[in-house]
Design goal:
By secondary structure, the protein is mostly helical. The chain contains 6 helices and 2 strands; from the N terminus they run H-H-E-E-H-H-H-H. It has a two-stranded antiparallel ribbon with strand order 1-2.
Amino acid sequence: MSKVVSLRLKDSQIDSLNRAARRLGRTPSEAASLLLDEALRQRDFAFIEFRDSPVGRQAYLQGTRLAIWQIVSIARDYGGDVAKIATHLSRPPVQIAAALHYATTYPEEIEAGIADNECSVANLERLIPNLKVVKTDAPSP
């Protein structure tokens, strides 16, 4: 369910919203809804920020190049052991725990990111016939 909410914005905010909407390929109303949702999520979850990526807006671990779905993918290799994941990524365990907490709250978003990544490998193999994809197991502790 959704509700209409009326906001009073300054001219400069309207200009900024219109620019953001154009970049996102959305209406100003859709862009405002998306950006508000992201801002609220950032308030609710430590160490999470949203950025543009080749596949659209994604949640990232703040201050890194790691999308949350990437951390979850690595977490699966380590059985969800936060300390091992943190060591592997050279990040504090509190950041890894925060990323995994976000992922449990938004599982569809995370699974879509993981599925998109797996699809990318298949696309590369189709585009580059001699490509050899090498998969490795996570190193033992």
